Amino acid sequence: MHAQQYNDISIRFSQFLLKITGTWITTNRSERRQRKFATAYTIFMVIYAIYLNISDAYYTWGDFSHCTFLLYNLLCITLVVFKILVVTIRKAEFKDLILFAQEHFWHFEYDNDEMILFTNCRNFCKLWTVSSYCVTQTSLAFYIISPIMVNIRRNGSERILPFQMWTKLPVTDTPYYEITFIILVLNVQQIGAAYLSNDGFMCVLNMHVICQFQILQHRLMKLWSTADEQTDANDYADSCYAGLKICIQQHQSLIKFCNKLEQVYSLPIFAHVLVFSLLMCIDAYEIILADVSTSMKIIFIFHVLGSCMHLLFFTYSCHGLIEESGNVSMATYSGWWTVLPMSKTGRMLRRDIKTIMMKSMRPCYLSAGGFFPVSLETSTTLMSSTMSYITLMRESSMRLRNE
Q: What phi and psi values does residue 186 have, to the nearest 5 degrees?
């Protein structure tokens, strides 16, 4: 373990969200108790949210716009449950990812050029964490602002809640109204934290492993110029080979890390890609076609912004993983290994260079359930298909209105 552990807002905030949803790793008995409490709290809030939406759909069946809104909520909740379930099942691999990143990624023992790469990675992670949280929080805030704005124009007996409650209890009376309102606010916040936590941390891990591939390329290129000061050819070859073996070990560890990253996040990525178009279609319907309040439209507008930003960020990070892991081959080939003598060390060095180049020709990637690798092309394909669905839905709605 490095003497000075690196930590910034992206890591701290991702860790905080994972802790309050009961997904973060534990190291002692106290943390295990806290995790059990957070897990139980999240399960309770998820069950309660599902109950609220299903009961509301039962009593308002026939109101297409409202039922579409409830379907949108249920899809988000189901996605949250699936992501947490997968990470919980893969908790051993998830723990290995965190411990490996803490030991090999998150530290300050880099040279000046490597520190520039690390700083760029850190800034990107901060941008992703802050922007995703702000957009998500704004969307969640309007779940709360919408009933407050309506209640301003009503008397105390007609107050409404963020979600309609079908119960015989006097939830519109004080103090039951205030207690119920706070419970619903906590419910919305917990679902939002669970929705954002796993994907946010996945992007942070993905960007840091991309940074490590860039650092590996830098070390491979620097390897030859550092050893160039040697005058004897055999000593020069020995020095190059010693440095190359360290780079090979780093490359192998990064490949293993990417394989575990794939095991943990492959199914959550697939689930998100699967429901993305449906969620965007519901958003478009509620914004363009449905007769809903302005505050409700704002919820869906910010969800569209958040979903598009989320898709672009994580496909960009997945695309960068493919590119940078494949660029290791070019960085290896660009060295001065051709001028080395054909001694025993020189032959072993050439053999290992061919091995690392062959491994790099099959780049690391994150896939959607093992069906296809995720890249920037995935985002354009999803956006294109979503626009097609929205256009078809709009034309169908206009045709029904004309009839």
A: -60, -35
Cα(103)–Cα(100) distance, rounded to whole angstroms? 5
- What is the pTM (predicted TM-score) of this model? 0.87
CB-CB contact of 340 with 237 (8 Å): yes
User: Which are the contacts of 229, defined by CB distance < 8 A and separation ≥ 6?
Assistant: none
Tokens of 216: 């590996």
Q: Helix or strand or coil: residue 5? A: strand
CB proximity list for 170: less than 8 A, separation 6 or greater: 176
- Amino acid identity of residue 358, one-letter, is M
284 is written with which tokens?
Answer: 């478009």
The yes-or-no verdict on residue 230 having pLDDT over 50 is no
Q: Are 151 and 160 in contact (CB under 8 A)?
A: yes
HSE-CB for 96 with a 13 A CA cutoff: 15
Angle at 185 between CA 183 and CA 186, to 5 degrees: 65
- Residues 164 and 170: beta-carbon distance below 8 Å: no
Per the listing, tokens 């045709």 go with 399
R_g of the chain, CA atoms, integer Å: 26
DSSP 8-state secondary structure symbol assigned to residue 3: S
Q: What is the mean pLDDT of residues 231-258?
A: 84
Cα gap 254→324, rounded to integer Å: 12
Whether residue 373 is preceded by a cis peptide bond, meaning omega within 30 degrees of 0, is no
Which one-letter DSSP state was computed for residue 191? H
Instruction: Assess contact for 286 and 65: CB atoms under 8 A.
Output: yes
Kindly list the distances between the CA atom of residue 6 and the CA atoms of 12, 105, 109, in Å, as whole numbers in the listed order. Answer: 10, 9, 10
> Sorting pLDDT into bands at 50, 70 and 90, what band is 381?
confident
Can you tell me the distance from the alpha carbon of 107 to that of 3, in angstroms, rounded to the nearest whole number? 8
Cα separation of the two ends of the chain: 71
